[in-house]
Amino acid sequence: MNCRKIVKDVLAAGRSHLLEPEAYQICDEFKITYPQFIYISNAEDGVEAARSIGFPVAIKVVSPQIIHKTDAGGVVTNIQSEEQFSDAYDTMLQNVRKNAPDAEINGVIVQKSMPKGVEVAVGGLRDLQFGPVVMFGAGGILIEVLQDASFRLAPLDREEALRQIKETRIYKVLQGVRRNEPSDIEALADLLVNVGDLLVDTPEISELDFNPVLAYPDRYAVVDARIILSR
Question: Rounded to whole angstroms, what are the CA distances from 146 to 10, 114, 162, 181?
């Protein structure tokens, strides 16, 4: 399923934000990488999916009404075994039904848990005057604490993306501190270029949020993807 069809179907369904599996399908089309996942609808299939992916795994609820899954209790990370999976699955759904009782639960994502990396954030927005804009900065919980971000108009090339990354404070961490290896900054620059292309090619996207993006010495991974549409 291509990007245009996904966007058309989501808007036709009366929704303004993509479900996470839909967002990852769009990531595929624009060569944006993310951890392996399987979309399931019950605990038994979830255990099989976790076994196939390999522990540890994370699980995340999929619901049209839940944009911020953590706030609704819809995320459990670092599940280490089949026994732990079943308990985590049941507890997560109980929490979601308690915190968002009106939410429709479409299913659950079982996703490979990623090792620790440098957390950055990549975002996109559509400015009424300037058009599509790409954001890069510190990610995870630090995005609100440090407010470390740099912006560029899309589209942009790799050289401009590298300059954007170097404007941030998190860049020093990406270069490697103490015993940590430098992160793959070239790969992050490619991510910014691809996000810019996504925003340009898909004018219905009003907001895009990849946070956290985990940066490693040889790659990156978009661990959570949120895409908001407007007509």
Answer: 34, 24, 20, 22
What pLDDT score does 231 carry? Answer: 74
User: 134-191, pLDDT tens digit by residue?
Assistant: 999 999 876 666 679 999 999 999 999 999 999 999 999 999 987 789 999 999 999 9
Instruction: Summarize pLDDT for 191-202 with one digit per residue, the tens.
Output: 999 999 999 999
| Domains of the chain from N-terminus onward | 7-18+25-31+116-229 (3.30.470.20), 36-112 (3.30.1490.20)
3-state SS, the chain, equals CCHHHHHHHHHHCCCCECCHHHHHHHHHHCCCCCCCEEEECCHHHHHHHHHHHCCCEEEEEECCCCCCCCCCCCEEEEECCHHHHHHHHHHHHHHHHHHCCCCCCCEEEEEECCCCCEEEEEEEEEECCCEEEEEEEECCCHHHHHCCEEEEECCCCHHHHHHHHHCCCHHHHHCCCCCCCCCCHHHHHHHHHHHHHHHHHCCCEEEEEEEEEEEECCEEEECCEEEEECC
Q: Would you say the pTM of this structure is higher than 0.85?
A: yes
